[in-house]
TrEMBL record, chain A:
Residue ranges of domain Acyl-CoA dehydrogenase/oxidase N-terminal in the record: 6-117
Organism of provenance: Mesorhizobium sangaii
Protein name in the entry: Alkylation response protein AidB-like acyl-CoA dehydrogenase
Domain Acyl-CoA dehydrogenase/oxidase C-terminal: start-end pairs: 229-396
Listed Pfam families: Acyl-CoA_dh_1, Acyl-CoA_dh_M, Acyl-CoA_dh_N
A GO cellular-component term linked to this record: plasma membrane
GO terms of molecular function: flavin adenine dinucleotide binding; oxidoreductase activity, acting on the CH-CH group of donors
Tagged with keyword Oxidoreductase: yes
Cofactor requirements of the protein: FAD
Lineage of the species this protein comes from: Bacteria, Pseudomonadati, Pseudomonadota, Alphaproteobacteria, Hyphomicrobiales
Matching PANTHER family: ACYL-COA DEHYDROGENASE, ACYL-COA DEHYDROGENASE FADE29
UniProtKB/TrEMBL annotation, chain B:
Gene3D superfamilies in UniProt: Acyl-CoA dehydrogenase/oxidase, N-terminal domain, Butyryl-CoA Dehydrogenase, subunit A, domain 2, Butyryl-CoA Dehydrogenase, subunit A, domain 3
Source organism (scientific name): Mesorhizobium sangaii
Acyl-CoA dehydrogenase/oxidase N-terminal domain residues: 6-117
Keywords assigned: FAD, Flavoprotein, Oxidoreductase
Residues of the Acyl-CoA dehydrogenase/oxidase C-terminal domain: 242-367
Protein name: Pimeloyl-CoA dehydrogenase small subunit
InterPro entries for this protein: Acyl-CoA_Oxase/DH_mid-dom, Acyl-CoA_Oxase/DH_mid-dom_sf, AcylCo_DH-like_C, AcylCo_DH/oxidase_C, AcylCoA_DH/ox_N, AcylCoA_DH/ox_N_sf, AcylCoA_DH/oxidase_NM_dom_sf
Segments forming a coiled coil: none
Length: 398, 385
């Protein structure tokens, strides 16, 4: 048993660091460091650079790097620390694996290279106004007419829809069977006639998610992934991938680093906040939780091969649930450090132009919005309560 | 990076788990607890036969040269059965002090006796005012010719009631709370001037209070530097804390399994209570605590061999914080989910609860170790390299 990374892993980490400093666009790095929103072109350019050696999480035959899970973990950790582009995108992370696992040859040949080189930007059409935690009750209909489906309905909470070229959707193709058995997985060109994207503004002032409306949208039948009415099993596969990668250790580490950096410049009662025992204990408490999460993530990676053989792994089951809590606690810690300075709301375009307290770094203006936004972590991708339902059933057998 | 056990470690796991399964059910434990020393001498012999008492010692003294992972494996299995025998006191604590601080003659004489099960030892570190500070030592050791004369009171001596020899920390120089000026002395329990008052612990184990009044200890029974024992004490305490974390993980594992079993069989309102969402979510909360505790115990076991004291102490402190917090969380949930039956002496869950809560108090509770971790600069968020 050995928790330490091998010589090979350490060499790989060095290689990643070199790669990132050679291949990250300085403006993007700067914007990420300050927590500013990136434009679609910046995301696309950043992604193309980042994936010069292939998509980190994909097998080599589909344009991936073929890296081991440990290497993927190291890459992700270094990308976040640098920081290089953190938004790996739903094409690479979510729909790509579905296409190379369940798609046909033509789909693999057409879509995968375009995802890998960031030609196409994807978004996820799962949630609906009446289907949130109860995802399988979704109502968006796809009715087959000859060589195409006619899609009518509405999706909501669609991340990056305003940037997307394509949307992968769960649609109801059979309303007369048990709800999970009448769902299909459809790839839809978001510029098709009848598709409308309407922004939703979140409490932190950002526009990240949208509503997507489908009104008599014609979708060629060759855009169906796998078999008709088998979409729910592909969705479960996708959600498992999403949750596995969702411990957010890198995000939380970065938040902790920033909290300490800021606390070293913050004075309370004439003494640096970072030197005060009560604050240090608060930090240490969270560091313990973060370390426990990190080791659990590494255990899950080490167990992944067993899991692929169908053995349920309790360690990996708790990553999303626990990861979102730790991310939220870290965002809360940053708020504690900010104290009264969290008050001013500063849109991106005004950053630097207003009379910020000179002691604070520019990214500090994003702390309150990040904290507000962090509440979503325990809601999206299966709320904490849904995670608990799943764990109770799948792992505990209740 | 790998979390898999080696072939030898797997065999060790299997053999100790089989022994526990065959001979250490909850009913067996109750029986052993009623025997005269408060545990099973027969089981102690079985541990010796299996080589468990030889685990951490080097081969030249008849040991197996096992490391912290091996101790973790054994302690976790022991935790599942809530064993009563003085393994921590004899092998981990006193054995650790001998291993790290003893001279050749002491090791040659005593380690083989531990290994074959003929010697039980204890470590007297606590005093009425020391709380969790191992350097708070008022007990005096005065040099008189070729002897040392020890006087003072040692409390909470784990299994001090059955030890033939007790290793006592005593002050040879300096003030009460100085880290320098502490020595370790191997004291025979029959030495004139030594009295002991045995007691039962909350969790069914045994201990003793030791009073020393001018107890004469031969120079040959001084362990290591008479003024410089603290680093050895501190290091062995880190090893003991890591072992206790593993024991707690064993307890937690069993508490979770017992509670799940209850949720799946107990019926109310015409259905299994495990079908209720509120109870399911509590059971998941227990799983989360268990898995985080397992992770932190692995972390401590992998770091406790680290020679860099700060790195080692940070990791061990962090693990003890996790275990302390989880002891309460898992303990409270498991009692609550059982309802009234969980409060009874005849049912097992309460005994596990008591053990893990007492583990929290040994060497330092979660709050103590959190303060220690904070004072050491925290874990910091750098990656494991």
């Amino acid at each position: 048993m050995d928790l330490m990374f091998t010589e090979g892993d350490r060499a790989f980490r060095e290689e990643v660091r070199r790669f990132l400093s050679d291949n990250t666009i300085p403006e993007i790095r700067q914007k990420l460091a300050e927590g500013l929103e990136l434009s679609k072109d910046e995301i696309a350019a950043g992604t193309r650079n980042l994936y010069k050696k292939g998509v980190p999480t994909w097998p080599q035959e589909y344009g991936g790097t073929g890296w081991t899970l440990v290497q993927q973990y190291i890459f992700e950790e270094e990308v976040r620390a640098f920081p290089a582009l953190v938004k790996l995108g739903m094409g690479q992370d979510l729909v790509g694996p579905v296409i190379y696992t369940f798609g046909n040859l033509a789909q693999k040949q057409y879509y995968l290279p375009r995802i890998a080189n960031a030609t196409d930007w994807w978004c996820q059409g799962f949630s609906e106004p009446g289907a949130g935690s109860d995802l399988a009750s979704l109502k968006t209909r796809a009715v087959r007419h000859g060589d195409h489906y006619v899609v009518d309905g509405q999706k909501i909470w669609t991340s990056s829809a305003h940037y997307a070229d394509w949307i992968f959707c769960l649609v109801r193709t059979n309303p007369d069977v048990k709800k999970q058995q009448g769902i299909s997985f459809l790839l839809i060109d978001i510029k098709s006639p009848g598709v409308t994207v309407r922004p939703i503004h979140l409490i932190n002032g950002s526009h990240e998610v949208s509503e997507v409306f489908f009104d008599n949208v014609h979708v060629p039948v060759e855009n169906l992934v796998g078999e008709e009415n088998k979409g729910w099993s592909y969705a479960k596969y996708l959600l498992n991938n999403e949750r596995f990668g969702d411990a957010g250790v890198g995000i939380s580490k970065e938040r902790m680093r920033r909290a300490l950096e800021l606390a070293a410049q913050t004075y309370v009662g004439g003494e640096r906040l970072v030197d005060q025992p009560s604050f240090r204990e608060k930090v240490a408490e969270l560091e313990v939780q973060l370390k426990a999460l990190e080791i659990t993530q590494l255990r899950a990676i080490a167990n992944a091969s067993k899991q692929q053989q169908g053995v349920q792994d309790p360690a990996s089951s708790i990553l999303k649930l626990r990861g979102s809590e730790v991310e939220q606690a870290a965002a809360e810690l940053l708020m504690v450090v900010m104290g009264p300075n969290a008050l001013p709301y500063t849109p991106d375009e005004e950053l630097g132009s207003r009379n910020e307290p000179p002691i604070l770094p520019r990214w500090a203006a994003k702390i309150a919005p990040t904290y507000f936004d962090s509440r979503a972590a325990s809601i999206y991708s299966g709320s904490s309560e849904i995670q608990k339902n799943i764990i109770a059933k799948a792992i505990l057998g209740l | 990076m790998k979390f898999d056990l080696s072939e030898e470690q797997r065999l060790l796991t299997e053999s100790v788990e089989r022994l526990m399964l065959d001979s250490y059910g909850f009913g067996d434990r109750r029986k052993y607890g009623g025997e005269v020393p408060g545990f099973s001498e027969a089981m102690w012999e079985r541990y010796a036969e299996l080589g468990l008492l030889a685990l951490p010692f080097s081969q030249e003294y008849g040991g197996f040269s096992g490391g912290p992972i091996e101790t973790m494996i054994v302690m976790e299995a022991f935790g599942k059965s809530l064993i009563l025998e003085p393994y921590l006191a004899t092998v981990v604590l006193a054995g650790g002090l001998l291993r790290r601080g003893g001279n050749e003659a002491q090791k040659t004489e005593l380690i083989p006796l531990i290994v074959n099960g003929r010697a039980k030892l204890a470590f007297a570190y606590a005093e009425p005012q020391s709380r969790y500070d191992l350097f708070h030592v008022e007990t005096q050791a005065k040099k008189q010719g070729t002897f040392w004369a020890l006087s003072g009171v040692k409390t909470l001596v784990l299994h001090g009631n059955v030890a033939g020899k007790i290793i006592v920390s005593a002050r040879t120089a300096g003030g009460t709370r100085e880290k320098n000026g502490i020595g370790l002395f191997l004291v025979d329990v029959h030495a004139p001037g030594l009295t002991r008052r045995p007691f039962l612990t909350q969790d069914g184990l045994r201990g003793a209070e030791i009073a020393l009044e001018n107890v004469r200890v031969d120079e040959s029974n001084l362990i290591g530097d008479p003024e410089g024992a603290f680093p050895v004490i501190s290091r062995v305490a880190d090893e003991a804390v890591t072992a206790l974390c593993a024991e707690a993980v064993g307890c937690f594992t069993k508490m979770q399994a017992i509670t799940l079993g209850y949720l799946k069989t107990r019926e109310q309102f015409g259905t299994k209570i495990g079908s209720f969402q509120v109870l399911q979510h509590r059971a998941v909360d227990m799983l989360v605590e268990l898995e985080q505790s397992r992770s932190m115990t692995l972390y401590a076991a992998m770091m406790v061999g680290e020679d860099n004291a700060i790195e080692r102490e940070r990791a061990v402190s962090a693990a003890k914080v996790q275990i302390g917090r989880s002891s309460k969380a898992i303990g409270h949930q498991s009692i609550q989910l059982h309802g009234g039956i969980g409060m009874t002496m005849e049912y097992s869950i309460g005994h596990y609860f008591k053990r893990v809560v007492m583990i929290d108090t040994l060497f330092g509770d979660a709050d103590h170790y959190l303060r220690r971790l904070a004072a050491l600069g925290g874990l910091r968020s750098e990656s494991i390299n």
